[in-house]
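Can you give me the bound-state structure? Components:
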Amino acid sequence: MTRAMARARPRLSAGSLPGRAAAALGAFARTTSGPVWLVLVAVFLACQLAVSIDGGVFLSVDNIRDMLVRSVALGIVAAGQTLVILGASLDLSVAYVVSLASIIGAETMADQESRIPLGILAVLAFGAAVGLANGLVITKLRVNAFIATLGVALILRGIIESRYSGPVGGVPDRFEDLGYESWGPVPISVVLLFAIVGTGWFLLRYTRFGNRLYAVGGEEQVAKLSGVRTHRVIIVAHVLCAVTAAITGLFLASRLGAGSPLVGTDGGYDLESIAAVVLGGTYLLGGRGGVLGTIAGVFILAMLDNTFNQLEVNAFAKDVARGTIIIAAVAAYSVRWRRRRRRESARAGPGQPAPSGAHALEAAR
Amino acid sequence: MSTRPAPTPEPPAGLGGSRAQQAASAAIAVARAVPVVWIVLAVLIVWISAASPFFLTPEGILAYLKRSAPLAILAIGAYFVLASGEFDLSVGSLVTVVVVVAARVSDGDPANTYPVIALLFAIGIAVGLFNGFCTTILRVPSFIVTLAMLLMLNGAVFLWTGGAPRGALADNFRTIGREGITGIPVIEEIPYSVLVLVAFAGVALWLAQGGYGRRMLAVGDNDRAAALSGINVSRVRIAAFVLSATSAVIAGILLGGFAGVTSQVGQGLEFQAITAAVLGGTLLGGGRGSVTGAIGGALVLQALFMLLNLYDVDNAVEQTVTGLLIIGAVSLAAFRTRAA
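Here's the bound-state model for the whole set.
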């Protein structure tokens, strides 16, 4: 039995609504995202200190809003990336999906307000198709996810580079509101980010798909033997991931006012999103973690960027600091996880058989 | 593991079937036994030589091997890391660092070449040790460690060059990637890079066939079991990272001579190296693969690039074709593994 399934059991039997809410709150304190928010607070304090010593302002409404808007693109992709990584897969094609989605959106809309819904639909369909292709290649052709999505990334890259070299199409002013307007003090794009993260959180915590995804990521064979259609779960996760990348493409098109063949790769969304997911406490080999941790990881990266920009630190120091923080945070999570496992097996008592399968592997890592 | 060609099953004579059918089934049996990568390579080579007769001359083949050498060396390095169950995404940026640092430090002075090469190996070994240390002792997934390393090395290159690399490579430094031993009958010239590839492949084969190779596959297959049977898992993995970084240094020295000094020289090479190793039958996640397969994978990729060049295929379309080929070849290999 994997730990993911063991954790899922009380969740399934939760009864009344308040009981369920209390259970959710308790579960949150115990989730892998708990320590991530602590890191977030620590990084926040450090940034606040560094910027104020330098004579700048970190904690202002404008600056916070700026950081949130800058987190939107990476945040949406990373939420989708979380799903596939939880399923012990990964998606290296998202950067090109972002670029091509921005192009498809801007070309379909062609500066006409009446074509906005059509553009959105076309982009979502494109994302779903790429995700479906990724999922099918991984499950039915049994190509490792790394190679499969790298291959799909190359295919998309070829399509993009052979046909586009600069900005194309155009989005109507009405659609640019998504990137620039606010509802009250809150930018629309930030609402979009939270809506997507909220949806991801709900999917993982309260739906059968979420439980199955944890089970598949924890130990695919066990999930399969317990009657989960593992292929279907992985395909759905990939479709959702590619759709989030496509939505990011739409958002960036609304920011730029046009489609751009370089917008995805310039943002480095493929590797950055994986870094954000792992910084957010999700286990790279699947089965453990969640979107709330991921969004905290994205915010940590955004705060660092903002601080480094304000301090005018050179690019190298910035990269070294980011790399160090990511490595240190993940090392800390893994120490914490191993300690927890040791406590749990100590509580289980000496008569308990040695941890088997996935547990043993983790202990060895 | 490369499978040995199985004896071709003789169909019972009484069952009929013409001679042609027998030959066909024998051919299929042989094809089943040969690793996919060599079949793909054979197809590509036949295709290239049909399109360009120059290819099958000794000069043509040596020129092709010379071009393939850096990628083949990187693929061997990738094999060690992948087969021990880890990833190394930092090799491409390390290649760039090697070229940029060599140009800046030696500044075109031939007297500096050998000290600079020593410095490059020191950098490479340090990078490999750092990757291995963070992966094994700090237990951070290697994907993340080497990704952070990639970012840091790229940042260092950018800081140091400001976008445009300065300095130049001395002629005797460039010789290694460019020239060869001349005056040999029939083939006239053996490029140094081919000799370097052969030497590196020899060392790698010696390591892979020996105790280290067995320990490495055991660690990649099941690190818990390997640890319980007395293998020092961390040491095996750290050594794999150092080997991979060393391969990047060697590839960088060859590419510096061959391609010249740019800050894009190593871009994307980490993915090409992993792809080559996987085409050659290395299992991502560890425990299976071979040095010869990795070399074969690199030869396939290089042959593919050559073929697409011959047909004047647009650089961008080249990407698409490469993507399709990778998915096709790996899924074919997966189906054969299941059938076997």
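A couple of observations. The CA atoms of residues 200 and 259 of chain B lie 21 Å apart. Strands of chain B lie at 180-184, 188-191.
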